[in-house]
Structure formats: structure tokens, C-alpha cells
Amino acid sequence: MSYSVGQVAAFAGVTVRTLHHYDKAGLLSPGDRSRAGYRLYSEADLVRLQQILFYRELGFPLDEIAAIFKDPQADHLERLRARQRQLHEEIARLQRLAEVAERAIEVQQTGVSLTPQERFEVFGEVTFDLSYATEAELKWARSEGQRASMARAAAHTKEDWRRLMGEAGAWRAELLEAFDAGEPSDGERAMDLAEEHRLHIARWFTACPPDMHRRIADDFVTDPRAFALVVPPSQQRPGLAAYTREAVHANAARHPGSTPVFEEDR
Fold first, then answer.
1. What whole-number distance in Å separates Cα of residue 40 and Cα of residue 4?
2. Spatial CA neighbour of 230 closest among 218, 245, 220, 215
3. Is 37 helix (H, G, I), strand (E, B) or coil?
4. What is the pTM of this model?
5. Which segment, 47-51, 99-103, 258-262, is predicted with the most confidence on average?
């Protein structure tokens, strides 16, 4: 028995255009044609279409499906296992993103609502890059410190943020002054500024042991978005991010016996 392209499209829940595309791609060429030249699909063609749709549902690209059909000796089971591993990884990634979205909703619901003018008054040039915030949430999602920091931030009032940002601005001015004056990154002044920054984090967000502070400072060098939260781009100088990181590491060395707080490597 033969079926028209319209009938097959209705059976399979796909469009006629999709079937035409599969034909052009060499994935599913109908076994026969009507006298008028219309495609006619056999029972065997329908079985093949079911296989194509099965692989497509699992996310296989068309060229890989074509390779599977062309090589009957291929290890289809291993291909499926590999795809299964990829799907599990994607499920885990989406679950983490869902958790990030949930926490973001909580922050929006419980946090301080600021108008654009108030936001500029409080934060000035310091901007929060959403992509960086999301990556940070995924990176430190299992960290107690990250969860505590998010909870503390959500609980801050507008006045808290004003005091916090004022404190950060005064510290930033001293950092720039020390850097411009050529103070060594491992000198007393630079290390004291690093310690002030560590205590600032602990005071407003979460406990920040030296090891944790080192890892935060490492991001200053590897990710411009992280350092922009500390020093806005308009105030940055070449080498300032590395200088700040070195000062943090030098200060951490003054506190022996510290233990890591983040758990991603455990």
C-alpha cells in the first residue's frame, strides 16, 4: 500500500515541507511516484520515517542520522549511550538554570525596588552584568557562601545599598591612589586595602576567608566583568586588575591556615 505525502505528513505529525527536506537530504526518498509525479511512500518508508523522527527527538542532527543509515555496521547503541550522556548533562544544566531563575525571582520579590534614577544614585557607574551573574550562580551554586551572599543581598534596604556603595567608593579611591603612587602590590598599604575589601565582603554579603578572597580576586584578571564590579571601566588603568589580585594574594599569605570555602572542587 502506498501513501501520499499529505497522508504521511498527517500520520507522522510533520509538515509536507519537512518530508520534502528529508527527501532532498537523502534521508527519506519515497519508494514510488504516481503517474502524475507525486511522491508515494511505502510501509518501509514509514518505518524509516519513524526511525528518523526518533533520532530527531533525541536531538541528533540530520547529517549524523544520515551517517547512521549509511553504515549498517555502526555501533548504534554507543551512539545512543553518548546521546544519553549529553542529555543528562543538559538536564543538569537546565536544572541549575531553573534554580538560578528561582533565586532571581526571590531577589526581585524581596529585594529593594529602585527607579532608574535611584539605581544610578546608589550604584553610579558600577553595573551588574546579567551574564556574569548567571555564570557566577552556576559556578558557585553548591557553595554555602554564594547562597548566604544572595540572601544577604536580597535583604538589603536602599539605605544599606547606599552605605555599601559609599564604602566601596571610598575604598576604590584609596586603591587608585596607591596604584597611581606606585605602591608595591605586596606592600603594607596594598595589603591593608586588600584586607579592607575582604572585610567589606564579609560585612555586607558573606564570610570571606582568605582562600575565598583569593579565588574572587583571580576572577578580576580572567573576567573583565568581575573587575568591573569593583572598579568601573572608566576608572580602570592597565595592570590595575592584576595589581589588585596580587595584593589580595599577598594579604592572604599573612593569614596562614585558611581553608577553602567554595566546594566545586571537592
1. 5
2. 220
3. coil
4. 0.49
5. 47-51
| Alpha-carbon Rg for the chain in angstroms | 29
C-alpha 231/C-alpha 9 separation (Å) is 59
The rounded distance, in Å, linking the Cα atoms of 15 and 8 is: 9
What is the Cα–Cα distance from 180 to 173, expressed in whole angstroms?
Answer: 11
Residue located via cell numbers 502524475? 36
- Which residues lie below 8 Å from residue 231, measured CB to CB, with a gap of 6+? 172, 175, 176, 240, 241, 244
Top mean-pLDDT range of 23-37, 96-110, 190-204: 190-204
Q: What is the DSSP letter of 235?
A: G
Does position 134 have pLDDT exceeding 70, yes or no? Answer: no
Residues in the chain: 266
Sign of the four-CA dihedral 191, 265, 203, 237: positive
Q: Which residue has the cell 580576586?
A: 217
Residues forming beta bridges with residue 39, ordered by sequence position: 33
Q: 129 pLDDT exceeds 60?
A: no
